[in-house]
Amino acid sequence: KVLIDVQPSELAEELEQSQTQVQALQDTLQQVLDRREEERQSRQLLELYLQALKKEESILSKVAESETEPRKEMDVVDTGTSSTGVLAKTALSDQTLAVLKGKPAPELCLDSQDLELVVKEDTEVLASALSWDKQKAEALQQACDQELSKRLQQVQTLHSLRSVSKGKKTLP
Question: Which Pfam families does the entry link to (predicted)?
Fold first, then answer.
């Protein structure tokens, strides 16, 4: 760094070299410094990436641990009948059930297909699978239905905007 900061004429005089040779030397030194800086930044970025991976792995392992508990409950529920005699077989995946149980607004976390399955599911079966009362399961189904309707409305609006936009493109 010090050699780069020195005036080329002074350095040429000290080294008893021509100014063009000194300038080439300074350019080479600057390239080496730039490469070292890029390598340092790359290492930092890689370290950040590895830290993010570790955090993601720990989060995923926590989610997996929390999902094992609902699965154990589901196995018990799936093999028997509920107290009302309704078979507690559900079309919902264990992951979907974990989202329904674990999120404060699960309807915002599910894709549209899962929302449809929740809405179509029998309320008693859903309540039994989630270990909830029937009113809470009904409220969840209503929230999922509203979210599904909102998404459908957004898609219809988008299609309308596209058709209007296509119509304007054909005008002179």
Answer: DFF-C
